[in-house]
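@channel sequence for tomorrow's demo:
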Amino acid sequence: MLRNANNDMLRMVMRGFDAAIAVSVSMFFLWCLSSRIPVDPVEYHLLIIAGGLLLPAIGETFGLYKPWRGRSVFSMFGTYVASWLVTVLLISVFLVMTQSGYIYSRLWMGFSSIGVLFAGLFLRGALYIYLRRLRASGYNLKSVLFIGRPENLEHVRRRLSGMPYVGYRIDRTIVHDDEAQVMKAVRQLASDSAFQRNFNEIWLSYPLSDGSIVNRLADALVSVPVDLRYFPDLSDVRLLNHRMAQVADMFSIDLNYSPLNGPARFIKTLEDRLLGTLLFLIFLPVAVIIGLCVWLTMGWPILFKQYRHGLDGKRFKIYKFRSMKLHTPEKGTCQARYGDARITRLGYWLRQTSLDELPQFYNVLQGRMSLVGPRPHATDHNAMYKDLISAYMQRNRVKPGITGWAQVHGLRGITEDVSAMQKRIEYDLYYINNWSLGLDLKILLLTIKRGFINDKP
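structure tokens (generated this afternoon):
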């Protein structure tokens, strides 16, 4: 009960923290722009209070105030950006519907909105870094009692030693292969620890085949009022993504779950529509010039079109600027190779700079691709690799992207053997497992930094 009270208190503090940021930043810009604003700006004060209350309310809906311990900073940033974006949209819709937008200075609204975003991200990032350093130095740690098999204990300890900043420390263990000895020790522990204990959480780690002992351990430990976590040993199961779910009053571990559902899918779609439209307009003049150059040097057609597999394996037509001479297609897809005579001089430059991919912004606006996601492969390559790499088709659980986690790490272009494709798939599955708006923004920034230049044919 005390732990839940502390968590609730921290959530309240963080909600107040976000409300204070929104109010303080808006009031600051109101003071800076006072010469452009009426002498008695009571309407501004009402809007500032409304925005300050709305932001943490939306953040609560998006899971912004869940415990930070162990969470990625990019996931946290992405959730904050999504909460801020929905707050701005709701306020804008309200002003339009009430026809009261004319009351407020556009300059003030723009400065306040952007100021709240960057102030929130900066202060959150600073607090996140401070807490990570504090935990890495041995402070603010949670003490863990571990119960499980010896090999599972070693695995968990290795993971924790590689991430000291998450703030967990295994102080006590009940580790044995003999089930009877484990149950005896746990029953004694439960009797001694009902009212007083020197650990904060209990972690269980057993293979799925040992579900019966996990059930008995959970029953024995029900009298110990701490968080009880079960880490199933799934080392022999290939996971795309996983979560706990309740179906027909039964609990399940979904082993093949796409994270882009519900609110996440809405956020991803909003990202593609808004940012995709902006980038499409920015690159449109460049695309027009490239199209003219392709036409003047190679003639028609300007675009190369080919069917690829997209979300859930459905086919769609992908667009690129043509980079090869017209030739009789070979049976199947023949990847471009170093010194390929089919590639023109302009086409070689387009491939090296990745500018041949610009027409795919239209695929994004069609809703068939995303800005970020696993790159779509040729259909016959999919047919071949799905039998060679067990988890290959799991990449089709999300929309393909113009750029991706694999591409910004140099895994692009020709794949000369199965191991090269296997490595690319590992990066694609990492992206799917760890998707967040923050990760998408990181990949887009890395694409600007190092993703355009391509040394592959």
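heads up for whoever presents: Residues 1-5 have pLDDT under 50 and may be disordered.
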